[in-house]
Amino acid sequence: MHVRADQRFPIQIELNGRQREGLAEPRMQLCDFLRHELGTTGVHVGCEHGVCGACTVLVDGVASRSCLMLAVQAHERRIDTVESLSRDNIMNDLQQAFSRHHALQCGFCTAGILMSCVEFLERVPSPDETQVRDMLSGHLCRCTGYTGMVRAVLEVAQQRQETLVENNNDV
Amino acid sequence: MKPAVFDYVRAANKREALQQLTEHGEQARIIAGGQSLMAVLNMRLAQPKVLIDINQASDLHYLKVENNCLKVGAAVRQVELLDRTSLVDEVPLLAQAMPWIGHFQTRNRGTVCGSVAHADPSAEIPLCLVTLGGTVVLESLKGKRREVPAAEFFQGVLTTEKRPDEMVVEVQFPLREADVIYRFHEVAMRHGDFALVALAACIRQGEVDLGVGGVADRPTLRRLPLGAELKDSLNTLAWSLGAQDDVHASAPYRRQLVRELGQQLIEDNDHARAS
Fold first, then answer.
1. Is residue A4, in this structure, part of any structural domain at all?
2. Does the keyword Oxidoreductase feature in the UniProt annotation (chain B) (predicted)?
3. Would you call B8 and A53 a contact, using CB atoms and an 8 Å cutoff?
């Protein structure tokens, strides 16, 4: 696969469960492709050099900075953005917990943080506070001071574990 | 900012990547995880004409123990080393250092060899490689395969022994030696930020190999005596590194960290266990 600098390449990705296609020249970052070509403006672009974490999305289920990846690199991959979380305009448990615990104020950093939390809770289903804070260290939030986020993530982890136990008991 | 224009080549294997490098030389850059290079491209500090992507090169994706070394191919991500449960027995120093590297989100994509090729003086993987006496394997299409000792590979800030038509295809970490205690610690403004001072120690009978990152223009390794002379030799080491002031820390603070953190790391067993 060779894409010339002045060429716009047809990129196919599975975006939030749907097959999508758009055009990108080689230098286009994945975050810009997702926003401007495919309209998933939940991807927020902050620092554009991998420090702030606002643009974090899942690439094949793994939390990654979409400003540190090219759109052409995402060709034939699976991408999930914050838009994948809610169903029928109802926020998922993580989003509701963020709201309940005031884990956001302006909301700019939130989309990326939620996506990190999605992968983190799959890898570490019962985290302690230190682990949650370590995960959050990959993000910058200038409003909240992170305390609400830590509470929200810990609460969701506990709720999901309880649900798991209940479901197992039902069976 | 957005990168300047470049051609993008997705290499299916090592040979294809080396062919592209031979063809384009200094005009080309290899991209693997891109966790350092993409930032550099976005800020236009580098403007290559061709970007060679090796993420799909399956023959560069291997982790194996061979000839008393852990060999890590160029496409192996940092998270794969971190998740390797046997790492703590194979290369305990690296196992201690891995959680300090960037953040979970950057380790997901960043590669081990990429960190070595980038050669940031405060990076943890180059520091461990130098401290353990590891090897960097370079290949080009026409030349010979070169196995360069890590101490010779790093030549300054973002500067290495690698020639324009070569790529880092593998790094080799020597396996743990019996009767050696390995310890790692660093100080940064926040966990996961660039280290102000990072220290890696191999403690033997009567002496210690101490690697220092984040102070000089490259990871630096010194052999120091244990016991009463340690304090003086740490002081000599601290002054020899040419510490510079920057926005994050002053030169005297960096020297003090080398002295104090060095002594704690080497002598204080409780501290090492806690970290």
1. no
2. yes
3. no
Name the closest residue on chain B to residue A29, using Cα atoms.
Answer: B2
Task: Enumerate residues 6+ apart whose C-beta is below 8 A from A78.
Answer: A13, A14, A58, A59, A60, A61
Kindly state whether A171 is in contact with chain B, defined as any CB-CB distance less than 8 angstroms. Answer: no
Above 90 in pLDDT, residue B269? no
Choices 3.30.390.50, 3.40.50.410, 3.30.310.80, 3.30.450.20: CATH for B181-274: 3.30.390.50
- Per-residue pLDDT reduced to its tens digit, A116-159: 999 999 999 999 999 999 999 999 999 999 999 999 999 999 99
Partner residues linked to B208 by β-bridges:
B203, B224
Task: Identify the domain boundary among A58, A84, A110.
Answer: A84
Instruction: Work out the minimum CA distance from A171 to partner chain B, whole angstroms.
Output: 33
Q: Which residues pair with B187 in a beta bridge?
A: B197
A98 and A13 in contact (C-beta within 8 Å)? no
Q: Is B242 exposed, middle or buried (0-12, 13-18, 19+ CB in 10 A)?
A: exposed
> Could you tell me which chain A residue has the CA closest to the CA of B106?
A64
For residue B19, the chain A residues in CB contact (below 8 A) are none
Q: Which of B230, B188, B239, B189 is CA-nearest to residue B210?
A: B230
Mean pLDDT of A53-66: 97
Say whether B105 and A26 touch across the interface (CB within 8 A).
no
Is B55 in the A-facing interface, judged by CB distances under 8 Å?
A: yes
Asked if the C-beta of B6 comes within 8 angstroms of chain A's C-beta atoms, the answer is yes
Is the predicted pLDDT of residue B275 greater than 90, yes or no? Answer: no
Range of the domain at A128: 93-170
pLDDT score recorded for residue B192 = 78
ipTM: 0.92
Quick: pLDDT tens for B219-234: 999 999 999 999 999 9
Work out how many domains chain A is built from and give that number. Answer: 2
Same domain, A54 and A111: no
B273 touches chain A (CB under 8 A): no
- Asked if B115 is an interface residue toward chain A (Cβ–Cβ < 8 A), one would say no
